[in-house]
UniProtKB/TrEMBL annotation:
UniProt record similarity statement: Belongs to the universal ribosomal protein uS10 family.
SUPFAM superfamilies named among the record's database cross-references: Ribosomal protein S10
Keyword entries, A-Z: Mitochondrion, Ribonucleoprotein, Ribosomal protein
Name the record gives this protein: Small ribosomal subunit protein uS10m
Entry superkingdom: Eukaryota
Length: 174
């Protein structure tokens, strides 16, 4: 090791040999640079698609664990407040929906020996008002990606639409 250090200090040829072996130097070739072309504006289109407007979006959450549903509803409300979305209502049903299944312990006989299983489904609801289509899509995609295990989400959108052409306003009498 000491011999390498001494040769390193003394001889520039040894130094260059180490440098080229460890860090190979690449020669740059001549590159021609083409000038940038100006961006052409898009031709004006007469069919501009307007963003949808939603009067209300209703979120219905179902799950088997009420604590998980409560936590997820807090998450949805916090995400809405960060996006500047107005949450008007958030509530839950008083009782869970119960579904009972009765089965025989033995398939062949003993009708009096039965076992009963119960599935409870808990609900939470959130109402959001006055949304644009792009904001609604962004918000719904975000909360759907963070949907916890054992929960389901049902979304109902109520869209604002203009009056049809065949409906005319009433004429004022003078």
């Amino acid at each position: 090791m000491n011999l390498v250090k001494q040769l390193w200090r003394v001889s520039p040829t040894v130094r260059s040999a180490f440098i080229t072996n460890v860090y190979p130097v690449r020669q740059l070739s001549a590159v021609t640079i083409n000038p940038l072309k100006p961006i052409q504006p898009l031709p004006p289109s007469n069919t501009e698609e307007l963003d949808k407007l939603y009067k209300r979006v209703e979120l219905e959450m179902r799950g088997i664990d009420p604590a998980v549903l409560l936590s997820y509803s807090w998450f949805c409300i916090a995400a809405a407040s960060h996006l500047g979305i107005e949450v008007t209502k958030s509530w839950t049903l008083r009782k869970a929906e119960k579904e009972r299944h009765t089965l025989l312990r033995c398939v062949h006989i003993y009708k009096k020996h039965r076992v009963q299983y119960e599935i409870r489904t808990y609900f939470r609801f959130i109402h959001i008002q006055r949304l644009t289509g792009s904001t609604c899509d962004t918000y719904l995609e975000y909360i759907e990606r963070n949907l916890p295990e054992g929960c389901a989400l049902k979304v109902t959108k109520i869209e604002c639409q203009p009056l049809p052409d065949h409906i005319t306003p009433p004429k004022e009498e003078q």
